[in-house]
Amino acid sequence: MTPLVTVLIPNYNEIENVKRGVLSDIVSYLKKQKFTWEIIVSDDGSTDSSVLVIKEFISTHKNIRIIFNQHAGKPYALRSGMSEAKGKYVLLTDMDQSTPISELGKLLPWTEKGFAVVIGSRGARRTDSTPLRQLASIIFLLVRRMILLPEIKDTQCGFKLIETTLARKIFSRMRLFGRINNAVGWKVTAYDVELLHLAKKLGAKIKEVKVVWKNEDTTLGKSRNFLKESIEMLFEIMRVRANDILGKYD
């Protein structure tokens, strides 16, 4: 039977999150639902022991599998997983589960109202983040809405439900691929903006839904330069806008 939802989770050195049982939480929630589902973990060339622990978990659970990729960044891992997805919809969610899987219940009903893209939103403020990260988020929000997607408050929440056929079209058209070799920083995470911009250009109805969010990212603060990354992010948004003006998405 074709699953309704493919839960797609990128993994890169997420051993701390894996060990605290996030996969068990995800499976426990999904088992209680009436819809059919599958889980794909798309590994981004991890160098820690997370893959071994995930493989051990998979050996005793159904409807979950892992695929392996060279380290190239989150967007590449998602694109790889997208090609393997069997569900009618694909849920992009992070291993840290800052937005818990239970919030899927808020997104799914909107697909029945004709929305092909339903995205989680943390709102304009990140009360669970550091003051520096809150400031960076507010500045990014203001600048980004002046350049692209003014109707969307939060493009960056890692909790997005997309019709799978549409998601494949979007990822096949993203100009990010083939030009980014550095797999770190906001230069890579700006992919969300390009993704949503392309969804809009393809005529997809997009719904933004407020979701629970608590910062569970254990990598924050480790070798991070927010000023440098904010500048990179701004340039990536301008790149998407320039590509649009030049007709590269047509």
From TrEMBL:
Residues 6-171 form the Glycosyltransferase 2-like domain. Pfam families: Glycos_transf_2. One of its GO terms (biological process) is protein N-linked glycosylation. Gene3D superfamilies: Spore Coat Polysaccharide Biosynthesis Protein SpsA, Chain A. This is Glycosyltransferase 2-like domain-containing protein. The lineage of its organism: Bacteria, Candidatus Roizmaniibacteriota.
